[in-house]
Design brief:
Blueprint (H helix, E strand, L loop, with lengths): L9 H6 L7 E4 L3 E5 L7 E7 L6 H7 L1 H17 L7 E4 L15 E5 L9
Antiparallel strand pairs: 1-2, 2-3, 3-5, 4-5
Amino acid sequence: MAGEPQADCLFCKIVAGEVPATVVRETGTTVAFRDINPQAPTHVLVIPKAHYKDAAALAAAEPQLVADVLREAGEVAAEDKVVDTGYRVVFNTGTGAGQTVFHAHAHVLGGRGLQWPPG
């Protein structure tokens, strides 16, 4: 069921403390942790504690939770001191966009030049 922890979800296991992660921030609704394959000096994932398969499903079900994720993305950028130089927040949705864990999550990337278009 949407919003409920999924036994086969890596990120749900991180939320539950069953899988280790380098957590940098945690709130009542979100967890932020360092990506294990960083693409920039700052590469942190911000996830809702509730399970939704992607950003679209999360936004449709719980718009306030999307706001929580985005607010925490800004806090991560501030703590990593990338606000002044710029940072990117990315939600990959679907395999064609590079989503590999089907639990909604935002990538916070910064600390190097981020060209446009990405990819």
